[in-house]
Amino acid sequence: MKNIYENLQKAEHSNLHRWLLNRTLKNSIRFNKPHGFKVFSIADSELKTFAPYCKKNFNHLKGIHACAIATVGELSAGLILMRHFSPKKYRLIMSKIEINYHYQAKKDIFAHAMISADTKAKMLEQLNTDNKLFHEIVTNIHDTDNAQIATVKSTWQIKSWDTVRTKV
């Protein structure tokens, strides 16, 4: 997690660190390795991940499988949270996911998650008073033609490690 966090901070302005981040993600999250998910772009308040249209991601209709779409949406949301909330200080864990599928994915897809500066400030304020919070991230999934494929709503529990009872 340390390498992922460090490379997330540097990858916005460095192709090398984005490459290192993608390499680290591939080796750290083994489940995602065969699917070819990658961080495509990073800015201060947004993050975009990529999932290729390839055989390993196909369903029985030769579209991208629903679970691959959900996973790339979860990945974007988790990484944008990790970019702003250090895993050294906070435990991030997804507590709920809801996916609305709009269109069949027959091309490469991109998952786009955002956190505004105002939202982050409110989250930090709540963490300072309550030591934990639940926050929903909406991730929009589009294909290369910009057709909306799905909307992923993931709810995350963010909690200070000081208050976690079950340590890693």
Q: Would you kindly provide a written description of the structure presented here, covering whatever features stand out?
A:
This protein has 168 residues and is an alpha+beta fold. It has a single domain, classed as Roll (Thiol Ester Dehydrase, Chain A), CATH 3.10.129. It is 33% helix and 32% strand. It has a six-stranded antiparallel beta sheet with strand order 1-2-4-5-6-3. It is globular. The mean pLDDT is 93.
Topology:
Blueprint (H helix, E strand, L loop, with lengths): L1 H9 L4 H14 L9 E5 L3 E6 L14 H19 L5 E12 L7 E6 L2 H14 L1 E12 L4 E13 L8
Antiparallel strand pairs: 1-2, 2-4, 3-6, 4-5, 5-6
Helix pairs in contact: 1-2
Question: In a few lines, what is going on in this structure?
Answer:
33% of the residues lie in helices and 32% in strands. The chain has 4 helices and 6 strands.
Biggest β-sheet strands, sense, barrel:
6 strands, antiparallel
Oligomeric state of the chains? Answer: single chain
As residue ranges, the low-confidence spans are none
Strand order of the largest sheet: 1-2-4-5-6-3
Distance between the termini: 12 Å
- Spatial shape: globular
State the helix count. 4
Give the H and E element order: HHEEHEEHEE
Average pLDDT for all residues: 93
Helix proportion range: 25-40%
What's the structural domain tally? 1
Supply Rg.
Answer: 16 Å
Helix-and-strand structural type: alpha+beta
Q: Please count the beta strands (DSSP E, at least 2 residues each).
A: 6
CATH class: Alpha Beta
β-sheet strand percentage: 25-35%
CATH fold description: Thiol Ester Dehydrase, Chain A
Under the CATH scheme, which architecture would be assigned?
Answer: Roll
Determine the CATH superfamily. Answer: Hotdog Thioesterase
